[in-house]
Amino acid sequence: MGPVLAGVLQLLALIGALALVYVPVGGYMARVYSSDRHLRVEKWIYKAIGANPDAEMTWPAYLRGVLAFSAVGVLFLYLLQRLQGILPGSLGFSSVDPAQSFNTAVSFVTNTNWQSYYGEQTMGHVVQTAGLAVQNFVSAAVGMAVAVALVRGFARSRTGELGNFWSDLVRGTLRILVPGAVVAAVILVACGAIQNFSGIHEVGQFVGGSQQWNGGAVASQEAIKELGTNGGGYFNANSAHPFENPTPFTNLFEIFLILVIPFSLTRTFGLMVGSVKQGYAILATMFTIWLGFVALMMWTEFAHRGPALQAAGGAMEGKEVRFGIGGSSIFAVSTTLTSTGAVDSFHSSFTGLGGGITMLGMMLGEIAPGGTGSGLYGMLIMAVIAVFIAGLMVGRTPEYLGKKIGAREMKLAAAYILVTPALVLVFSAASMALPTPPHSMLNPGAHGFSEVLYAFTSASNNNGSAFAGLNANTDWYNTMTGLAMLFGRFLPMVFVLALAGSLAGQKPVPVTAGTLRTEKPLFTGLLVGAILIITGLTYFPALALGPLAEGLA
Amino acid sequence: MNNSVTNTARLLGASLRALLVLTVLTGVIYPLAVTGVAQALFTNKANGSEIKADGRVVGSSLIGQQGYGLKYFQPRPANGLGVNSVNTQYKLVLSGATNLSADSKVLLKQVEDAKAKVVKDNSVPGYAVKPSDIPADAVTSSGSGLDPAISPQYAGLQVHRVAARNGLSVAAVEKLVKDHTEGRTLGFIGEPQVNVLELNIALKDLVAEQ
């Protein structure tokens, strides 16, 4: 069997596994967010928080909960890093400096997990497990909570109520992420991922002498890193490191973990709005784009254009033998079409076009299938825009899921899709125009520009992967990518929740012969087209300067 | 005004309590519980899959090592590996890739140099390595710099040299490589691989037996 066929079979196996769990996982998540009952431990947690989980919130109240919880999260994680030098259980590692602490705190709270630090030399046990891993859980739960609030906006009528943030946060963490992560972590350890608290210790070498290695709670972090589409590696090499991703099977399993919640949430959405077919239409859109990107990536990586890769006889630079080109290509696309940013191979050494595909994946807004929660709400915003475009074509007031898309709804959707491009392009342009930031580039020419463009695309879209040649641990990049992550996470959430509130307040429009059937393949086609055209028009000039210039040279 | 300040303070207080409770759950109980299960059920794996030879630990079967002499099978290049620049009381290996681009002149030179070295090292009397026979993994650095494996092609290409340097027959070394070649999982997941450390341990044993 050749590597191309093996790659295709891995892809099919992955699709089969995702299809198998789609109905049960999607249905389970719908029940979690719709149930009236609280578990005993949850009741205890609500008491500790001092919140009434049954109190319905309007969109401003829901948003205040999101922002307050995230602000406290940033501050807590910042202080944890700043105090690492005096915290026990930190391997004697010194405190992290202010700019890097700010960047990392924002990075993990915003579900980005951009890393301007080297995991193995910077973060001790306490920061890793009680700081970074905690945000891996709760930032994902916040994303799902906002998505569910938007879905309720579509599902409910004549009310401003979107649910209770605390209840959604706690349930998402306790009932979805923790059980999933426990199972996944044990499977990863069974395959060789490490899970210990032995700290830094000497290990003998074959040629004599010894090396110093990090021990740590790696598997438990790896599990939620993928399941919560986080992406922050315990080690610098992230999921290329054998202790994080030891075998070909774990590689496929980790891709599965990345994709399972974002894809299955379309089922949750369908159930909550009362039509699983609407969920299928969204799923089909996500799946079409994802599959198309995987096919393109495999094609360009197996073709290995580029002088150094031609000389080597294959695109193996930055890739592990055990995963090969097929497994690495599927991982690279899945991590950048979600908000994950974990890497099992280094995108900077991909072919020029391959690197461009990873960038374009993020530029689509990470909606195919996107991050936990953020993928669904991002895609629903695009659906609103697609419905609007269709409405313009036939001269009819657009509506989606029984709700009118009026001026207010369109303004919010338009604001949503303008935020990240504005951040990406302004910050990238500023970095190129100023005298010192370009010094951080490792490679010259078009690829150097790609490194900067990639950094701000990754930060603004809360991805976290990198063309890692860029030296991002400077005050400029720590601060500016930090701001890009903050604005790129929370401004869109403001617009999503405002839209949800506006939709929930409407009375439903009856379906008539003139209603656009958004559960049909025609709409899926329209939606895919709208996504590609909007993104293409926004980013084509920047892509032409970077990956396209390199790939077509 | 006063009211909104009070409300904000109350909300931040609730947020802090929520964070602390969830930290205990996901940042303390969860990792400790997983560690407990891992240490009980998969002790060796949870601790890094260390392997012993001659009664001492010689590394992990998952982590590639550098510095083998030409008597032994060579691993992939690891030009992206680093050493720590902070917390220098330790001497840590920093995993990582070169991140050099496909059109990088530096990378092109690394590949060409590696290729020339593979040809030179592995061509022994009666066996000449052609540059076109060299697989890509032999001349490129991996993503982690710690890739424990090489492709069966790269291992096969080293057989004649290893046999000559150790006074073994080519057939015996070929068999050794074959025994240590791991196919794709279930026949289609990943790529065939040869674990360099395990192969070299077996090689050393074989030499000692002779």
Automatic annotation (TrEMBL), chain A:
Gene behind this protein: kdpA
Protein's name according to its UniProt entry: Potassium-transporting ATPase potassium-binding subunit
One Gene Ontology term, aspect cellular component: plasma membrane
Complex formation: The system is composed of three essential subunits: KdpA, KdpB and KdpC.
GO molecular function: P-type potassium transmembrane transporter activity; potassium ion binding
InterPro entries referenced in this protein's UniProt entry, alphabetically: KdpA
Keywords of this entry: Cell membrane, Ion transport, Membrane, Potassium, Potassium transport, Transmembrane, Transmembrane helix, Transport
Segments passing through the bilayer: 61-80, 176-197, 252-273, 280-299, 323-343, 350-368, 374-394, 415-434, 480-501, 522-542
Membrane-protein topology: Multi-pass membrane protein
Domain of life: Bacteria
Species of origin: Streptomyces diastatochromogenes
Role summary: Part of the high-affinity ATP-driven potassium transport (or Kdp) system, which catalyzes the hydrolysis of ATP coupled with the electrogenic transport of potassium into the cytoplasm. This subunit binds the extracellular potassium ions and delivers the ions to the membrane domain of KdpB through an intramembrane tunnel.
